């Protein structure tokens, strides 16, 4: 098996400013802080663990190339692209669009390289140059919608890669499975009326964005049934996520028959994440990964690619990422230093209200 891996040092240079979630503001008590919740150090630490663990030597480097304007315009409006480019030239940069997604001067180049990293991985997976792979890109993308960015996302990396797979590589059906803990509202919006891209979002119900990601959001027009939302209750752990995968995601993929599966791989559903309240462990992410690898082998000759989204625990994201990469390499799961603490908090038991939420999603009308 040849497993591709995308990382670029500048992904660790994304400047998230001196705020924590909101920009620092002495008039409202928002003190400056060294590490914004989305500080890139979390993802740099993931990369460094991959390197120090020895896994990096077993992965095939995939070189990120900046997405072109044409790549970006397949998904985003010219106005959004122009605004990001313009603000990226300012001495202190700008914001993706919601006032709490800052980027520094040169942020456009980093965001274009993030989207380009996803494109390069997909290109090599579809051409079978590599069997599968992981794009550890930054900034993330799944909240970015056609006309704007939000939630730390500037461009929708995974949608730009999906559009590339369709328009340049000629694929007809692409599935996006989003296990980031927040609703993949941007990805959903981009493809909402398009039956050629199935979007599936597992997320903590109403965690972010506000009032988004309801079960009833199922697509529109020709796209009706091709957007699937699986809102999960807070404190959902490994058992609930694996059950949702088995009961909702895999059946939907089998019905859609994608030629390529893209996984929006956020680790903010983890039990140690500060921006959500789920209880997934590194073992849970390994189990989810096993399942999507197996269904890709079953449906599309193993054409599956993983693209980094959120994940905000600098302590635990590295171990969640390592567990996913070990699964890609075919290595058995190995407990990490946090396992004794995180695997004994009850997330390994499926609770009735979790099962009920999942059954509701399973019984949503077919596509
Ligand atoms: C509510 C609210 N109101 N306002 C003004 C702002 C700025 C609000 N939250 N911002 C957030 C909250 C969570 C995220 C997570 C992103 C992620 O990891 N996605 O995968 C990003 C921004
Ligand atoms: Zn997230």
From TrEMBL:
Pfam families to which the protein is assigned, alphabetical: Hist_deacetyl
Name of protein: Class II histone deacetylase
Family from the record: Belongs to the histone deacetylase family.
Domain Histone deacetylase: 39-325
CDD domains given in the database record: HDAC_classII_1 (cd09996)
Matches recorded under InterPro entries: HDACs, His_deacetylse_dom, His_deacetylse_dom_sf, Ureohydrolase_dom_sf
